[in-house]
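Quick one:
INPUT:
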């Protein structure tokens, strides 16, 4: 039994609907035999997920809308009673619709929307534009017409009939994936018209302004370009623009340049550690202490997707900007993570594992707050939990050169609890083992945020995120990672000595 154009359009729409729903983890119970109202209801559910403002891809949204429009055109062409209207005019409209449907179907099957590619038409007067190129393929593959019949229905840019030789060449070189003829020469017959000099300079300006304050990806620049200029470019096109201007997706890790004094301090610290035996170092390293500001996933769908996929470890920058202090990620606390998303934590590690000292509401601690924490026994409880065989001091705590740790009030609190501070050299996070644990913890939490995003779950609030951090740090895996980081201090010091004071990468 022959399949009507309406049935073909509905089947094509359901196929596209099911494929996109599977990609976005939306469960559908519709088939090509389902009622129209059920298909429409399923379309609305999928459209909410696919919409770019909800975190979906623009290509998928265009593809879904094109399939929906195709089905609606078929319904209108079929008439109010669901059957083609009799008469000559109805046959003509049905024939025209079949051709239109076939054109859409080829593009939908290839994963492309029916929109024109972001390039101009070919400029040779005897060549075919994109519409006529597609028409050649459709008349040959769908209608099975001869070359002479195809020639009568196709027109070149002059409005005249093309030669059969040209039609054969178009048919041979046509790409169904791209919906046009692929030119061998990159500049043959086409030119970019959306990436003007003004658009390019705008992208570079916004990149320089945003990359120091947030995660600036090509999708962020794409949204900025649409909002400010009204120009919609593909993310791949923006990547090409940035690469052409010397920007690459590189790590934020900077090449630290140490002064001679700091280099001497780093070498002295590393050599002092290497002179200790393993037992002496284990006795000396009661706790490697530091604070960290963990970041919750943003509420905005696009920013949340960027955060879960990339974190804050990479950015668009030039290779020559490796030593730029503005891009090192050491900006002021206000520019790093907003307080509504920040989860400040003070904790430490040793070869016994990981122990939490305190969760804070503010990002920075002051002298009075730290003295209350020490006098309240939170620091000593953390040390005892990692060293149960040594319930009393003296203990040594390896820490950075925070100002509030060196005040008279803090030192008095440390002395009362039997705690002595062991300071690492300035600007030396590689010599504090807890920094490696923070990197692992950030990566693990971001993987869980990514799993939530893919499962369609909402972003956690601060209370739930703190609970996730606690449960993650209590796992055996976290304790093993903490012990490994603390035990690797000797290896790091050997590398620092071998590099004559330069930063270690191990």
């Amino acid at each position: 039994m022959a399949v009507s154009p309406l049935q073909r359009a509905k089947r094509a729409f359901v196929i596209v609907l099911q494929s996109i729903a599977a990609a976005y983890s939306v469960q559908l119970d519709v088939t090509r035999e389902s009622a129209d109202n059920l298909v429409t209801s399923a379309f609305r559910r999928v459209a909410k997920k696919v919409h770019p403002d909800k975190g979906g891809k623009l290509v998928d949204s265009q593809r879904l809308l094109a399939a929906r429009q195709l089905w609606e055109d078929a319904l209108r062409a079929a008439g109010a009673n669901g059957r083609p209207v009799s008469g000559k005019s109805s046959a003509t409209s049905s024939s025209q619709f079949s051709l239109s449907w076939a054109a859409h179907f080829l593009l939908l099957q290839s994963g492309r929307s029916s929109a024109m590619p972001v390039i101009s038409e070919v400029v040779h007067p005897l060549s075919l534009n994109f519409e006529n190129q597609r028409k050649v393929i459709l008349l040959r593959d769908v209608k099975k017409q001869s070359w002479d019949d195809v020639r009568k229905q196709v027109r070149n840019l002059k409005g005249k009939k093309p030669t059969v030789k040209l039609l054969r060449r178009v048919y041979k070189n046509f790409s169904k994936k791209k919906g046009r003829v692929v030119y061998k020469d990159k500049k043959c017959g086409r030119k970019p018209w959306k990436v003007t000099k003004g658009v390019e300079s705008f992208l570079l300006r916004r990149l320089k302004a945003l990359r120091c304050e947030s995660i600036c990806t090509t999708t962020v620049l794409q949204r900025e370009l649409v909002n400010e200029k009204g120009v919609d470019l593909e993310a791949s096109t923006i990547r090409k623009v940035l690469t052409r201007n010397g920007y690459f997706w590189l790590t934020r890790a900077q090449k630290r340049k140490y002064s001679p004094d700091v280099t001497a301090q780093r070498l002295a610290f590393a050599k002092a550690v290497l002179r200790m035996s393993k037992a002496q170092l284990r006795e000396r390293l009661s706790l490697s202490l530091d604070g960290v500001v963990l970041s919750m996933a943003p509420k905005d769908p696009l920013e949340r997707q960027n955060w879960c996929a990339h974190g804050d470890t990479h950015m668009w920058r030039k290779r020559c900007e490796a030593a730029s202090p503005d891009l090192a990620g050491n900006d002021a606390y206000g520019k790093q993570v907003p307080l509504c998303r920040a989860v400040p934590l003070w904790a430490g590690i040793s070869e016994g594992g990981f122990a939490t000292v305190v969760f804070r509401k503010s990002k920075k601690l002051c002298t009075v707050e730290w003295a209350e924490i020490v006098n309240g026994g939170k620091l000593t409880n953390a040390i005892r939990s990692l060293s149960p065989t040594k319930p009393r001091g003296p203990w040594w705590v390896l820490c950075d050169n925070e100002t509030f740790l060196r005040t008279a009030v803090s030192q008095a609190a440390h002395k009362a609890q039997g705690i002595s501070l062991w300071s690492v050299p300035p600007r030396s996070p590689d010599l504090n083992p807890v920094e490696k644990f923070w990197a692992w913890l950030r990566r693990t939490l971001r993987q869980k945020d990514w799993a939530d995003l893919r499962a369609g779950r909402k972003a956690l609030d601060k209370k739930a995120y703190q609970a996730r951090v606690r449960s993650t740090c209590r796992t055996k895996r976290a304790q093993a990672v903490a012990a490994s980081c603390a035990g690797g201090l000797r290896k790091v010091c050997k590398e620092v000595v071998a590099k004559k004071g330069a930063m270690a990468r191990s």
